Amino acid sequence: MKTALGQLADQVLFQNYGKRDIALVRGEGAYVYDDEGRRYLDFTAGIAVCNLGHAHPGVTEVIERQARTLVHVSNLFLIEGQVELAEKLTRLADRGTGPYRAMFVNTGTEANEGALKLARRYQYVSGHPEKTRVVALPNSFHGRTMGSLSVTSNPKYREGVTPLVPGFEVADTYEGAIDMLDDKTAACIVEVVQGEAGVRPVDKGLLQSLAARAKELGALLIVDEVQTGVGRTGRFFGFEHFDLSPDIITMAKGLGNGIPTGAILAKQHVADAFTPGMHGSTFGGNPFAMAVANYVVDVVRDPAFLDRVRRVGEALRRVLEANFDGVTGLGLMWGFDVDDASTWRKRAAERGLLVTACGPKRIRVVPPLIIDEQHVEEFETIVKKIGRA
């Protein structure tokens, strides 16, 4: 039976998120609590958002301090926090192949829309207006707005909203993506670990071949780090595992630990294609979001923090492989097979564990990056009671 809150939600909210039975009202570290006081071990982290967990004391302090100072001004003015964050992110992104610049937005799909636009604009100002095609990998997910949706593979997201952006194409096979690149291609866009596809790392050799072919043709490589970035894979950027040097990088999710924050990083010669007035964001890079993101990045970029993510991630991997088939992932981003994902997720919640489904028989776990071995042991105790469902 639905609660009064659930009944009202059905009346006043769009129903695009499906059935929601749990009302979460409070969080602390790796745990959240519902409106009846029940505690859950949160292995969703807002879907890879709350990398420092819930109600993190440092994040809370920054939020309180910045809220008393300055929340928002427009990008007509210099914002100190933007400059500070851009310096940090561009240094972290530079693998010795050239400096980057940064622009700040609010969400992952907004970052990807900006990246796709930048790729076409770069080709135009470089004297190649014919280079307008964008190629994406199969099983891709880059967002649900029209540009990012056009490079997202799942047909259920596309139903009834076509035509999509002309020239934006999703390959049928991974090897086929390389063959699709031609002299009319502006860019290819990839996730190094495909989250919505079941948390599956893309083959390193294939990514490197794709990048090499793009470079040969003068096409840009866009790496979507919306879910893999900010330490999720055990490196600050996921592409570090794959020895890539992206022309454009998109970020969001974990960057703000729940405060909407996104970023587009681009090599300087690419970023220069966005001249004044060519692109912008009302809220992107506001002082409030920048204060939080600066704090998050300072914590996560610490080598000791990332070492811990990798160590705990390995402990989690061992637990998953001992109990499930089809375990794939990196760091603290894993997918595994069950008999029925919807049933398994519900049984997990009944036992105080929150996870997400990423397919009819696939579960995704993306816990806060601050979990330790004790949280992994608690997770193991619960999953042993559930089995494969």
Task: Report the CATH architecture of the largest domain.
Answer: 3-Layer(aba) Sandwich
**Which class of the largest domain in CATH terms?**
Alpha Beta
| Count of structural domains | 2
Strand content: 15-25%
Q: Care to count the β-strands?
A: 17
Quickly count the helices.
14
* Share of helical residues: 25-40%
- Enumerate the strands of the largest sheet in spatial order, edge to edge or round the barrel: 4-12-11-10-7-5-6
Please give the alpha-carbon distance between the first and last residues. 24 Å
Tell me the overall shape. Answer: globular
Mean pLDDT: 97
What's the CATH topology label of the largest domain?
Answer: Aspartate Aminotransferase, domain 2
Which regions are unreliable across 5 or more consecutive residues at pLDDT < 50? none
The radius of gyration over CA amounts to: 21 Å
> What does the largest sheet look like?
7 strands, mixed
Give the class from helix and strand content and strand pairing: alpha/beta
Considering the protein shown, what is the CATH homologous superfamily of the largest domain? Answer: Type I PLP-dependent aspartate aminotransferase-like (Major domain)
